[in-house]
UniProtKB/TrEMBL annotation:
GO terms for molecular function: ATP binding. Pfam families: ABC_tran. SUPFAM superfamilies: P-loop containing nucleoside triphosphate hydrolases. It comes from Branchiibius cervicis. Keywords: ATP-binding, Nucleotide-binding, Transport. CDD domains: ABC_MJ0796_LolCDE_FtsE (cd03255). Transmembrane segments: none annotated. The lineage of its organism: Bacteria, Bacillati, Actinomycetota, Actinomycetes, Micrococcales. It comes from the Bacteria. Residues 8-252 form the ABC transporter domain. This is ABC transporter ATP-binding protein.
């Protein structure tokens, strides 16, 4: 099988908020590659920089220094207009709080990215998505008439409709019970396996990370390890170490394994 292609990557990525004494270095030299057609999780203790990394990779926020490449495009070299187009056409985003427009129906919310880009929906693709999210009988409801799980499935459909190169999800199951959360994770898994999408998800939940292909661990704004074919139990174990402040130990161990060719 050919090597996986890189969908988006960061090198020497630094993000600081504020200046002087009050400056916070949220990302402290991140090198990471996100591969096409994979479901990648970003995990780490609270404040470790997960959301900041996701926002920088998704071109929602600019770095203080370092480089982000989206496909072959260096984000720093894109004009504001091109960046806006990239966000609109090549990125899908799913937020913890759903972020649907309350006055629009589910169908109108799902089609909004296409409407904003002045594009017509591909009816076959739209039907496939609606089938996958299981909302055919809810399309004319407004968000307030839908459960949290249904609202998040509308948000997933909205992220999928323009067939973006990468879908970024920030704690997509954070406001959902385990059944509704499981449905959303199943949907994201299906987006990768059946629709060939690339999904990157920030999560606190080891069980959620168990649905992914790869977990990247952050601590204090740095990458301190990663895990392929993660299991919930394996992720939980690693997270316990990170939350106990053993991030650097994990990093050294990971580098040791790399050197040993493991
Ligand atoms: N807009 C901002 N202004 C100032 N500091 C910020 C801002 N956004 C994030 N930070 C700081 O940057 C660091 C990383 O924040 P970030 O939200 O990326 O972490 P996180 O791992 O996603 O956290 P959580 O799991 O709690 O959501 C934290 O110390 C945070 O306080």
């Amino acid at each position: 099988m050919s090597d996986p292609q890189v969908a988006v990557s960061a090198s020497a990525l630094v993000k600081e908020y504020g200046t002087g004494e009050s400056a916070t270095r949220a990302l402290d030299g991140i090198d990471v590659q996100i591969f096409q057609r994979q479901f990648t999780a970003i995990m780490g203790p609270s404040g470790s920089g997960k959301s900041t990394l996701l926002h920088c990779l998704a071109a929602l926020d600019g770095p203080t220094s370092g480089e982000v490449r989206f496909g072959t495009d260096d984000l720093a070299r894109l004009s504001d207009n091109k960046l806006t187009r990239l966000r609109r056409e090549r990125v899908g985003f799913i937020f913890q709080g759903f972020n649907l427009v309350p006055t629009l129906t589910a169908r109108e919310n799902i089609l909004l990215p296409l409407a904003m880009a002045g594009r017509k929906p591909d009816t076959h693709w739209f039907d496939q998505i609606i089938d996958a999210v299981g909302l055919a009988d809810r399309l004319h409801h407004r968000p307030a008439q839908l459960s949290g799980g249904q609202q998040q499935r509308v948000a997933c459909a909205r992220a999928l409709v323009a067939r973006p190169e990468v879908i970024f999800a920030d704690e997509p199951t954070g406001n959902l019970d385990s059944v509704a959360g499981g449905q959303v994770l199943g949907l994201l898994r299906q987006a990768v396996d059946d629709f060939g999408q690339t999904v990157v998800m920030v999560t606190h939940d080891a069980a959620a990370a168990g649905h992914t292909d790869r977990v990247v661990f952050l601590s204090d704004g740095r990458i301190v390890g990663e895990m392929g074919h993660p299991t919930a139990a394996g992720v939980l174990e690693r997270m316990k170490d990170l939350e106990a402040g053993f991030g650097q130990t994990v990093l050294v161990a990971a580098q040791g394994s790399e050197r040993a060719g493991i």
